[in-house]
Specification:
Layout: E1 54-57, H1 67-77, H2 83-90, H3 103-113, E2 116-119, H4 135-139
Length: 143
């Protein structure tokens, strides 16, 4: 049974034969684009992490639930102690999915939230950036 509407007295029209396409001219090569300058990114917000800093609870009223409450409870036990002790005690702690969580991420959250403060300490020295040498120059091949 055909689902198309009935058509009476209209003959079917055959498709017109396609003509052979004329050969296309080869495209001219595009000029290479100028290299883009790298984006200048703003530095990460400094939340005050210092080596040897001590943890201090600010006394701000907190309304944390779930994992946030569990992690905040660990700060209460380490209030007045060096931040490295807290990080060492929380290293390797897994979340509900079984992935290891970084304690510094939680520290950053509570410091930026204002419920924990880092007092004292020394500024960590930045790691020197690696300089990538030209591989052709090392191999002794002319450029």
């Amino acid at each position: 049974m055909s689902l198309s509407p009935p058509v009476k007295g209209v003959p079917k029209v055959a498709a017109a034969p396609k003509e052979a396409a004329a050969p296309k001219a080869p495209k001219a090569p595009k000029e290479p684009k100028a290299p883009k300058e790298p984006k200048v990114r703003a530095p990460r917000l400094d939340y005050g992490f210092r080596n040897g800093a001590t943890l201090k609870l600010t006394g701000k009223e907190t309304k944390y639930t779930g994992q946030r409450q569990e992690w905040f409870e660990t700060f209460k036990a380490f209030s007045g102690k060096p931040v490295e002790e807290w990080i060492a005690s929380r290293a390797g702690v897994k979340n509900g999915n079984g992935t290891i969580q970084s304690p510094r991420g939680w520290l950053r959250f509570y410091v930026s939230d204002g419920s924990v403060e880092l007092v004292g300490g020394t500024v960590p020295t930045p790691k020197p950036k690696k300089v990538v040498a030209d591989p052709q120059a090392e191999a002794g091949t002319p450029a």
